[in-house]
């Protein structure tokens, strides 16, 4: 199970002992839990009769991690669609900041590569026709689906990197789409900029759907984007991992930032006029904003900073 695999790795890297694991909180972000295990079972996706009931509920990955690793503290499952992974990380920050827990294991997972789920995305006009994802090109017409899982074991931060800020809001506009004017994401950006200054870099959601590309252009126009800000698109590397994407991309950002770097874009991506898409790793010179958007206009923003 992907969630269990990355959870074990994160806890091992953190060096938590049995007592620390027992009192830690667990937060899992996912859009559909282990739905693939019962929609289209196949070897490797636990197609056992014993798991038939549990595989139909979103909390199944959290239960498996809790049992396997002995994590018995607060237990939460966040299912806010494509924002779930970033929301899970944000909830972890809130718990740590409140002092209610000392440690949080954050896990995000989504396994959408089964025919029934892909048919649903296709019927909604969300799947792209090309495997070469170029989210802002004139030809972009949908996202490239991918499967993924990520985990972070948190106490105070990520070593040299801290999660300085998290916020989210809702557009309340459409069950599937994003408002043409970009919605209320610009309010999240304005709040973060007022606290931390202009971002050195932004990792946008950038799925590749036409409506997402149009909305993101408006979002940064509404927030009076700084021309010096660089953009770092990660979905072209591994596709859109749905509810796992926010945490997976945050893990990649943090790892680069630990070395004072920012990840390169795949060469050949098409930036809107005035935007910077560096195709080589560059130095990280300030706060980094990570955005995520879920169906129905759920918007999330995290701010990462180096401490030294």
Features:
Peroxisomal Thiolase, Chain A, domain 1; 10 helices; 308 residues; alpha/beta; 5-stranded mixed beta sheet; 4-stranded mixed beta sheet; 2 domains
Could you give the topology of this structure?
Elements: H1 2-14, H2 18-23, E1 25-29, H3 36-39, H4 60-69, E2 75-78, H5 84-98, E3 104-110, H6 115-123, E4 148-154, E5 161-170, H7 185-196, E6 201-203, H8 210-222, E7 230-231, H9 235-238, H10 245-258, E8 261-262, E9 282-283, E10 288-294, E11 298-306
Parallel strand pairs: 1-2, 1-3, 6-7, 6-10
Antiparallel strand pairs: 3-4, 5-11, 8-9, 10-11
* Strand percent estimate: 15-25%
Give the helix tally: 10
State the CATH class of the largest domain. Alpha Beta
Give the distance, in angstroms, between the N- and C-terminal Cα atoms: 37 Å
Mean pLDDT figure: 90
Kindly report the CATH topology of the largest domain.
Answer: Peroxisomal Thiolase, Chain A, domain 1
CATH-defined architecture of the largest domain: 3-Layer(aba) Sandwich
Structural class category: alpha/beta
**Order of strands in the sheet with most strands:** 5-11-10-6-7
- Low-pLDDT runs of 5+ residues are none
Largest sheet: 5 strands, mixed
Instruction: Indicate the multimeric state.
Output: single chain
| Principal-axis shape | globular
Order of helices and strands: HHEHHEHEHEEHEHEHHEEEE
Q: What is the rounded Rg? A: 19 Å
Count of discrete structural domains: 2
User: How many strand segments?
Assistant: 11
């Amino acid at each position: 199970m992907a969630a269990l695999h990355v959870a074990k790795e994160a806890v091992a890297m953190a060096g938590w002992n049995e007592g620390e694991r027992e009192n830690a909180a667990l937060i899992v972000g996912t859009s559909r839990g282990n739905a693939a295990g019962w929609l289209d079972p196949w070897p490797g996706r636990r197609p056992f009769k014993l798991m038939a009931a549990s595989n139909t509920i979103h909390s199944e990955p959290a239960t498996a991690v809790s049992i396997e690793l002995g994590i018995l503290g607060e237990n939460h499952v966040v299912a806010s669609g494509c924002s779930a992974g970033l929301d899970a990380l944000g909830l972890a920050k809130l718990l740590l900041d409140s002092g209610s827990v000392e440690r949080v294991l954050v896990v995000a997972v989504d396994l959408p590569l089964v025919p029934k789920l892909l048919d649903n995305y296709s019927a909604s006009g969300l799947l792209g026709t090309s495997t070469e994802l170029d989210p802002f090109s004139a030809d972009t017409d949908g996202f490239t689906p991918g499967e993924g899982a990520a985990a972070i074991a948190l106490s105070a931060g990520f070593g040299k990197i801290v999660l300085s800020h998290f916020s989210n809001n809702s557009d309340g506009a459409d069950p599937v789409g994003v408002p043409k004017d970009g919605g209320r994401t610009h309010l999240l950006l304005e709040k973060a900029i007022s606290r931390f200054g202009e971002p050195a870099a932004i990792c946008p959601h950038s799925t590749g759907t036409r409506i997402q590309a149009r909305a993101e252009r408006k979002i940064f126009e509404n927030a009076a984007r700084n021309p010096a800000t660089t953009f770092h698109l990660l979905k072209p590397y591994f596709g859109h991992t749905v509810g796992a994407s926010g945490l997976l991309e945050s893990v990649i950002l943090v790892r680069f930032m630990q070395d004072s770097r920012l990840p390169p874009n795949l060469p050949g991506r098409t930036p809107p006029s005035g935007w910077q898409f560096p195709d080589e790793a560059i130095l990280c010179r300030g706060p980094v904003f990570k955005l995520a958007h879920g169906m129905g206009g759920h918007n999330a923003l995290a701010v990462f900073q180096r401490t030294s």
